[in-house]
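Figure S7 source data.
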Amino acid sequence: MEIKVMKNILGENDRIAAENRKFFGEKKIFVLNLMGSPGSGKTSLLEKTLEKLSGKIKIAVIEGDLFTAKDAQRIENIGVQVVQINTSGGCHLDAQMVKRAAESLNLDEINLLIVENVGNLVCPAEFDVGENLKAVVLSITEGDDKPLKYPLIFKESAITLLNKIDLIPFTNFNLESAREDLMTLHPNLKIIETSCTKNIGVDEFCAWLLEKVGEVN
Ligand code: MG
Ligand code: ZN
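Tokens for the predicted magnesium ion complex:
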């Protein structure tokens, strides 16, 4: 009966996710669910993005992590309002966790809420948390086989950030075939090549975010 249990869990999650979506929608907040493997560079990319967007829009962050508050501390250091969710080993965020975290934030005047999910390419894609769109960070160092191995997360995401692109000369990552696989999985997918250390693509990502924020206002 495992299948049935999973269905019920997802049904309950979807119900709370819909409530979250309504709540964020009424507040005119664009919510991005930022996903990707551990070490893909989600937090670094988020830091660069927040630095560039500061002064342009008001942003809050929910940081999902297995145990520590290290990533939340990094966000707080930039002066952005952040709340930490520790899943105590749980490998994804669900709608209830995001609901509780959102309740502890002051969301008045916030335009953009970024939810950094737990590092994992599998189940974060299955759990709607009430976001407007999902994004996935794929590091060049993870290999070009990941889109076909973990198709759901790339199908579910509106945007893929090919991160650490500056390291490509040191890997056998085939950019052309990775792009081809991504476009086969998701023809409308937006793909941006990024590097935090070389400041590549972050401005383009910021512009994409600003456009999306504009659409809910
Ligand atoms: Mg992180
Ligand atoms: Zn999980």
